[in-house]
Design brief:
This protein is α+β, with helices and mostly antiparallel strands. It has a domain at about 5-110 and about 160-165: Aminopeptidase (3-Layer(aba) Sandwich), CATH 3.40.630.30. Helices cover about 25% and strands about 25% of the residues. It contains 4 helices and 9 strands, in the order E-H-H-E-E-E-E-H-E-H-E-E-E. Strands 1-2-3-5-6-8 form a 6-stranded mixed sheet, with helices on both faces. The chain has a 3-stranded mixed sheet with strand order 4-9-7, with no helix packed on it. Helix 3 (about 95-110) links the parallel strand 5 (about 75-85) and strand 6 (about 115). Helix 1 packs antiparallel against helix 2. It is globular and about 45 Å long. The structure holds coenzyme A. Coenzyme A (COA) binds near residues 84 and 92.
Length: about 170
């Protein structure tokens, strides 16, 4: 069945929560709080983009994009993630479609750039690169990656929204 990538609707909220729990259950480098992060971002009005992969009767994947703050005052930067695909549907290209569509939408909105925290082997294929100028404190630098949409990469420290501390 064709899988449609589309913005979330209120009817998707519970399914996004459940699929995020399922996707991260056996993942590496997780605090198992990603479902709470999505909910807290939504409640704080900070879900710049929330796309789902809809296979016709089930939401099988999801990606969130939210604004990040840069210490040098640069504007228009966003963070990609959490991104989740149901375990039984991983490896079909759905994560890639969700990420590419989210990045295209961000570019279309005139964003300056996007950052991501995750495995460089995966995120490199979408144009993300670790850059010594742009840092997220207290994480291994190779796991924090960025891409600028035309301009330079700022020299700054990055902060995610406090929703990323949500644990319930
Ligand atoms: C990461 C995730 C979203 C990718 O979705 P997906 O639909 O399986 O990805 P795709 O089918 O588009 O791509 C599959 C490729 O990604 C690779 N990949 C998947 N997860 C990866 C990971 N954590 N690290 C490195 N590579 C990964 C696969 O090995 C495969 O590589 P290949 O194309 O060279 O064979 C999905 O595996 C998932 O939900 N994982 C658990 C949650 C998680 O770790 N999310 C990311 C952190 S926010």
């Amino acid at each position: 069945m064709t899988v449609l990538i589309r913005p979330e609707t209120p009817a998707d909220v519970d399914a996004i929560h459940a699929l995020t729990v399922a996707a991260f259950r056996d993942a590496e480098h997780t605090s198992h709080t990603e479902q709470f992060i999505n909910d807290a971002l939504r409640n704080a009005g900070q879900l710049t983009l929330s796309l789902v992969a809809d296979d016709g009767d089930t939401v099988v994947g999801h990606v969130a994009i939210s604004p990040v703050s840069l210490s040098d005052g640069s504007e228009g930067w966003f963070g990609l993630g959490p991104v989740s695909v149901l375990p039984e549907r991983q490896g079909e290209g759905l994560g890639s479609r969700l990420i590419r569509q989210a990045l295209d939408a961000l570019r279309g909105q005139g964003a300056a750039g996007c950052v991501v925290l995750g495995n460089p082997d995966y995120y490199g294929r979408f144009g993300f690169r670790a850059d010594p100028c742009l840092v997220l404190p207290d994480v291994p630098p190779e796991y924090f990656q960025a891409q600028a949409f035309g301009g330079p990469i700022p020299e700054a420290s990055v902060s995610y929204h406090e929703a990323f501390n949500a644990s319930a």
